[in-house]
Write a structure and sequence with these properties.
alpha+beta, three-stranded mixed β-sheet, protease, 20% strand, serine-type D-Ala-D-Ala carboxypeptidase activity, three-stranded antiparallel β-sheet, Beta-lactamase, 10 strands, Peptidase_S11_N
Length: 269
C-alpha cells in the first residue's frame, strides 16, 4: 500500500483476520508518542506486573529505565515486558491529563483501540500492548494503515533507523545493557522501518515493512502467516524488487513524497 495515496499494488486476502503477534507494538509505539507528545525523558520504576513471558528486554522489578530506552527495548528486542511498562506508564499519563484515576494499562489499551479506529483500522482488536493475546487480531489492510502512520511519523523515524542501543539502568541493580535489533531487513537499502511478529510453535511468521520508493513515497508491505522465518523476508524482498518495474511511476519524481528518514546508523542515539 502507498502510504501517501492509499493505492494498493498487490493483495491477497486483505481482509482476513490474523493474530497480530508482536506487530501490535507498532500501535503501542504510536500511542506512547501521542500520550507523551514525543517527550520520552521521564524515568520510571519497573514493577513486578510489568514482567512477561516470551521475548523480553530483561527488565527486573525495581529497575529504573527511561521511557525512551523502554521504547528501544520494545522495538529492538521486541520486549513484552517493556511493552507492559510503556502501557502502564503511558496510560497513567493519559489519566492524569484527563484529571481522573483508574488503571493505566486499561486506559492505554483503550487509547490503542481508539487510535486504530481513527486510522480506519476497523477490523483490529487489541487486548494487550505486546501481542501475546490471541485476541489481538487484525488484517493486512488494517496493518498497512497502521504502518502508513508509524513509518511516516517523524517522532518514530529515528527508532527504525538503528540496530543497537546501550542503556544505563538505574535502581538497586545499576548496570549497562546492550540491546540489538532482531529484524534482519533493517538497514537494507530503502527500508524505513520494520516489525516482526512470530509464533514459533504454531509456525506463524508476520512482517510489516516500510520501504521508501525511488520517488520518495513510502510503501507499506505486510506479510501475515508466512510458514517460515525466511519466507516472510523472501516475500517482502520479492515485492520490493518487482514494484518499480510493475509500477514505473515509482521511478519518476512526484509532488507527493515523504521526508527522508535519518541516515541508518548501527548505534541508536
Amino acid at each position: 500500500m502507498n502510504a501517501d495515496t492509499g493505492q494498493v499494488y498487490y493483495e491477497k486476502k486483505p481482509n482476513e483476520r490474523y493474530r497480530m503477534l508482536s506487530i501490535t507494538k507498532l500501535l503501542t509505539a504510536e500511542v506512547l508518542m501521542d500520550a507523551l507528545n514525543g517527550d520520552l525523558s521521564d524515568r520510571i520504576s519497573i514493577q513486578q506486573s510489568d514482567l512477561a513471558p516470551g521475548s523480553t528486554a530483561e527488565l527486573k522489578p525495581g529497575d529504573v529505565w527511561s521511557v525512551q530506552d523502554l521504547l528501544y527495548g520494545m522495538l529492538l528486542v521486541s520486549g513484552n515486558d517493556a511493552s507492559n511498562a510503556i502501557a502502564r506508564y503511558g496510560g497513567s499519563v493519559i489519566l492524569a491529563m484527563e484529571g481522573r484515576g483508574g488503571n493505566g494499562t486499561e486506559r492505554f489499551l483503550q487509547a490503542m483501540r481508539d487510535k486504530a479506529r481513527t486510522l480506519g483500522a476497523n477490523q483490529t482488536e487489541v487486548a494487550d500492548p505486546h501481542g501475546m493475546s490471541r485476541y489481538n487480531v487484525s488484517t493486512a489492510r488494517d496493518l498497512a494503515l497502521l504502518g502508513a502512520n508509524a513509518f511516516r511519523d517523524p517522532r518514530l523515524l529515528p527508532y527504525w533507523q538503528c540496530t543497537q542501543r546501550t542503556v544505563q539502568i538505574g535502581g538497586p541493580n545499576p548496570r549497562a545493557k546492550q540491546m540489538k535489533d532482531i529484524i534482519e531487513i533493517v538497514g537494507e537499502p530503502g527500508i524505513v522501518g520494520a516489525k516482526t511478529g512470530s509464533y514459533f510453535s504454531k509456525g506463524l511468521y508476520n512482517l510489516i515493512v516500510g520501504w521508501r520508493a525511488p520517488n520518495g513515497q513510502t510503501i507499506v508491505i505486510v506479510v501475515l502467516g508466512a510458514p517460515t522465518h525466511p519466507a516472510r523476508y523472501d516475500d517482502v524482498r520479492l515485492m520490493i524488487d518487482r514494484l518499480p518495474s510493475d509500477y514505473p511511476e515509482m521511478n519518476r519524481p512526484t509532488s507527493i513524497s515523504d521526508p527522508a528518514p535519518p541516515p541508518f546508523s548501527a548505534e541508536c542515539r
